[in-house]
Design brief:
The structure is a single chain. The protein is built from 12 helices and 10 strands. The protein has 376 residues and is α/β, with parallel strands linked by helices. The chain has one domain. Helix 2 packs across helix 8, helix 3 packs parallel to helix 5 and helix 3 runs parallel beside helix 6. It is globular, with a radius of gyration of 26 Å.
Length: 376
Amino acid sequence: MKRILFAAALAALVLLPSCKNRRQQANLPQEDSTAVEEPVVIPLQEDKALDDAARILAGMEVAPDSPLAPWMEKSFWKKHREEMDRMWATCRETLDKIDTFAVTDLKDINEKALSVFYPFSGPDFPYAAAFFPKPTTYWFMALEKTGSIPVMDRMSEHTFSMYRNAMRTHLKSSYFITNAMDNDLANNVIDGTIPIMMVLMARMDFHIASITYQVLADDGSLTPSDKPTDVVEIKYFNREENVMRTVYYLYANLRDEYFKAGTQALIDTFDPATTAGYTKSCSYCMHKPHFSQVRNDMLQHAFAVVQDDTGVPYKYFEPEQWDVTLYGGYTHPLASFEAYTYQLDLVQAYKGDDIKPLAFKHGYMKISSLIVARKK
């Protein structure tokens, strides 16, 4: 009896591989109860009205059947397109270099980062997106209001020129001037950051899927609103990646005495293991004692910080907690801020032998500084 059972088992072992091989040779599908079907990728869809408005304001063409296509026939729009093309070419040259830098020098940060915390941002979407192309969520916070979606039938030759003037310094020199934004982003044409961010997204070949206002509660939660609020959510994507990304812009005074409970509660939700911090050209705010709360938030809620010398003072990146890499050069801050922002320790650090070159302009100074700090 044992011999019979052994022979049957041996025959089964011989036959099983044989059947498997025939199934493979016949190119038949393998039977696998654990197989999972590949997910169906649904192409993302832009909001045509928002997307076309952004493109026309950016000096970019829209489809011939678009309701906004007649703008392209106007002589002043053609002039607007030429001037926007010229200004954007300067900015794009810098962004191309940052694209390369992000792939090489920030590769480890971008592989880990899921979100970006950008205080004192204004509407500076291009530089955050260039330094950090991989994250899917960006948190912008600044003193400029959210504003409203442009009403295209109110546009004129003068209003198009206002858009160019509002972006001229940023596209040429990489930053917005705070005092200028008080006028450029606070009028009956451009009443906040939304219109400018729309234009900059279009110029970077992103498509806008939605723009919604959000209400920030004291516990840090966000709920949609049908009325303008201090928080706006912009969802966008590009065709190549087909990945939806989100920028949240908060109109917020980040000075300690005005720091709202909801803002702090929201920041407290940022995962320190996957949040990257970024800031530049921020009027040296975090050098001042009354901006200690946002400075501490940057240090506590980011696993890496990329900034120029106007951000968190160098002394706060303690060697026991941070590995710091310096790029470019630093000799002194912008003259109008020098009295309290001169960093002697940063001057000494930049005399080291391990300073890396910087191939692009970043921030206020002609000789740009870039500080990349990684938390240990």
